[in-house]
Please model this.
Amino acid sequence: MIEAPDLSLAALTPLLFIFGAACVGVLVEAFAPREARHPVQVALALVGTLGALVSTLLLAGSREVTAGGALAVDGAGLFLQATIAGLGALAILLFAERSLDPARSSFVTSAAVPAGSPRDRELLTSERVQTEVYPLATFAIGGMMLFVASNDLLIMFVALEVLSLPLYLISGLARRRRLLSQEAAVKYFLLGAFASAFFLYGLALVYGATGSIRLSDIRAAAVEDGGDVLLVLGLALLIVGLLFKASVAPFHTWTPDVYQGAPTPVTAFMAACTKVAAFGAILRLLYVAFGTSEWTWRPLIYGVAIVSMIVGAILGLTQTDLKRMLAYSSIAHAGFLLTGVIGLGSSGDGSGLAATMFYLLTYGLTTLGAFAVLTLVRDGDGEASHLSQWAGLASRSPLTAAVMSLFLLALAGIPLTAGFTGKFAVFRAAIESGAWPLALVALLASAVAAFFYLRVIVLMYFSPPAADGPTVGVPGLPTTIVLAITATATLALGIVPGSVLDLAERAAIFVG
Amino acid sequence: MTLSWYLVLAAILFTIGAVGVLVRRNAIVVFMCVELMLNSVNLTLVTFARANGTVDGQIMAFFVMVVAAAEVVVGLAIIMSIYRTRRSASVDDANLLKY
Model:
């Protein structure tokens, strides 16, 4: 007789909400008439993400392990889930923008039609929209929320796939420059599947070493014999799989290509939400399962953080495409985030966890905003993302240039923006735990990275506008909301970060 | 016969898969190499389940199979869409995005 595990439905409401919305979305796709689908799907995805956001906020303070020990509902998990749900809702709004592209959507009308065929050219101007992207994105958000709450390596793997598979698909759905988009999808898929295989082999080795895949059991086994070869090897492979998702160098090679090729709203979604989810899982794995055998992973994370910051900052300098530049910036930021991961301290009481969570929130909001601005600046064939096209943008549209400058300054970590507070928190955590050389490298890398952000600002304000420059679209309501929220939050978290920092401090607890 | 031989076999299969992903040029073959890696993990899981005397590992192998099946669907759809445009599934031909 097999006993059913006890499920705490109350603790699972955020996940039930988001997966429920995704499943209903699939049914709507199958049964609703074509004209009705777009508004219904957008509403459904927003209800799912906002419902999940509200229910995580209502759960604040609860701490339990449920679903037979497979899921952990705790402060850190809920904070990250709320971050993912909130950023996900903003990304859905970007998906739903219909007034920027002349054909009223940034997604392809029919993904099955080969790019460049006569039928494809015919559909290019059609105002028909395909709405699969909403349920797919909702599933991805659900997978991300499951990913940061999983207390079991198998659930973590399933969540990894649930978040990745829809992302592979939606990164291939751009309406314009379809070849680039499809190429991005193929690259993301092949490399992503490769990385999940590593994660899975790590899972198998850890299972062999400890006889369990529950994070708390692994912790107990690691206390007894943290140096077991099988266990350390398994840990290394698990970390490789997760660092890939977090786009940390040297596992970053897919990032620039996929960020450039994917439709810009999807890039915004990936840059913000996937980063939060991947780091949430890294934090949980390292602290809950391997917190007692810190000496096994600390040198690895230390080295990878340095490589990531340097690669991101240096290669970012050489980019001529804004989307690619922001991709390298995301690689550098992954390195900064890892300095926060190092900042846990050997006894587990450092401020690293709270700092990293706060940084994830600020980075997510800022990068989402930056990509949202990118969708506004367009030429005849979609977004004008080449740097030269942004020359003199301030004279053409002062507001757009000002908002973009705000986001770039925040990404560079200039005081009075959210980026500064976040960077300050993670660097302080790293120094407090004795990793000051790492913080020093991080400071130098930020200085280098600041150069390429500032270069765009200088270009926008002090260069003569190009003769055949891009047009700046007037955003519809969804994008306006996204820009308003992200810009306000970027400023607010820079000027008065106290309450949110406190919230992150108080939430920085893992059960398991 | 000891169980460790199965682990060695699985490790060899995993390595063949990983090397295949890195050196092969056809997207379908690369994808098959990934599947080989996943299946070597299944062998590892089942062997450890046997060694530990529990069925956990076998159940995990089922999960892996289901996920791998879902991955095949998504992967082949993506590879098909690019093949129909380019008439080639070589990963070397997909070279618009670089530097």
Q: What stands out?
A: Chain B has a mean pLDDT of 89. The radius of gyration of chain B is 17 Å.
